[in-house]
Amino acid sequence: MVFRISTDRHMRTSFLFVICALLHLTSVPQEMEIDFKSGKSMYDAWCARCHGLDGKGGGEGLELEVPAPDFTDCSFNSREPRKDWKAVISHGGGVRGLSMSMPAWGEALSEEQIELLIDYVKTFCNDSRWPQGELNFRRPQVTTKAFPENEALFIPTYTQSSAKTSTAKFVYEERIGPRGQWEVALPFVSNVSTFLYEVGDLEVSGKLLLFDHFASLTLVSAGWEVGVPTGNKARGTGSGTWKVAPYLAAGKGYESFFLQSSVKYEQPMRGNERKLFYNVALTYPLTTEKKGLIPMLELNVVTSLPERRSSLYLTPQLYIGLVKRGHVALSIGAQLPIAGEGPFDYKVLGFLLWEYADGGLWW
Ligand code: HEC
Predict the structure, then answer these.
(1) Model confidence at 69: pLDDT above 90
(2) What is the CA radius of gyration of the chain?
(3) Which residue's alpha carbon is at the smallest distance from atom 22 of ligand 1?
(4) Residue 5 or 363, more confident
(5) Whose CA is nearest to atom 35 of ligand 1?
(6) Backbone dihedral region of 177: left (phi > 0), alpha (psi from -120 to 50 degrees) or beta?
């Protein structure tokens, strides 16, 4: 009896030993194949079980809270700045408000290895027409952005003048292909004393990214706006004429600040009140996170043609990233007249911005 038990034990132990040895044999060559200097090799070994060898996501049989994204979808792959991916790979999905199903690798991998992984993940989109997310500088109040966007905005404005008007504008922007965007904006205009909002002039526009250079953080776009006289001229809610307004917009990033500028020429179809708008915006983020405070200062010039009368405004403002993922933000500012012949009315400006392709408005 005693003898048999010990034989059984012995056999069991040998059996386990063989299994372990087999497992060891099968796992050793696999681990040895990982080249810690190759993004592809590390990705295939550690990331592919959730993200797929082809980058399209996978994770079959794994209980992931949300599906892994499709890295071959250029609109997703190009949109995310590398530093945000670096944060997510180092600290896990939670750091940018994403799912914790995306694990943290910062303890196991060096910064260099994470960079190599990002380089590799970026290659899943091999269409260089898509501009990188680093060029998507934050939206100023007046200066037109050069980057094509998927955004919805609510823009309330209050103008201190004899009429004391306030407007509430709704804007919808959608990307077309890698470099285009169309946009529609509908303002509602009110006389503050009556608090009745009426439809103002509808604006429709298209924008095309002409040039972008990732290494120097530079981009230039051209666009075309059309103003439709849906407002009422007599009641001060519209201009009473169609308008066309071609524009150029540019941006340049530096180590710790960003410059954006736009020039627009506005031509009414009726009347001769042409206008030129020049804007420059300086952004100085106080954080490298997406949630946080980002102060900006704009200089806005409006020149009325043909008289060439110009008015100058300074527009200090604060952009506030409301969520970790950065896709919902608020901005508040004031446009203050500093020189020129225009009516010296100040404006209080704001917007609520939602990059709807990156997540819901409330989560
Ligand atoms: C256990 C499964 C799993 C593993 C392993 C994994 N990921 Fe992920 N990863 C996810 C999931 C799920 C998401 C989506 C999270 C979300 O959108 O909320 C994600 C998201 C990402 C994102 C997108 C972040 C963004 O901004 O949307 C990147 C980049 C990424 N993973 C890289 C990697 C790399 C590199 C590795 C390997 C070192 C890796 N992942 C390993 C599950 C995984």
Answers:
(1) yes
(2) 28
(3) 85
(4) 363
(5) 117
(6) left
CATH topology of 34-122 equal to that of 133-358? no
Which of these, 256, 223, 240, lies nearest to 143 by C-alpha position? 223
Closest to 188 (Cα-Cα) out of 176, 179, 197:
197
The CATH code that applies to domain 34-122 is 1.10.760.10
Say if ligand 1 is within 6 A of residue 116 CB. no
- Tens of pLDDT, residue by residue over 227-266, are 999 998 888 889 999 999 999 999 999 999 999 999 999 9
Structure tokens at 44: 């295939």
With the most atoms of ligand 1 within 8 angstroms of its CB, the residue from 42, 46, 51, 112 to mutate is 51
pLDDT tens-digit readout, 115-125: 999 999 999 99
pTM: 0.87
Residue ranges per structural domain of the chain: 34-122, 133-358
Dig out the tokens for 24 from the structure.
Answer: 């060891």
Give the angle 128-129-131 at the CA atoms, nearest 5°. 90
**Domain 133-358: CATH superfamily, name plus number:** monomeric porin ompg (2.40.160.40)
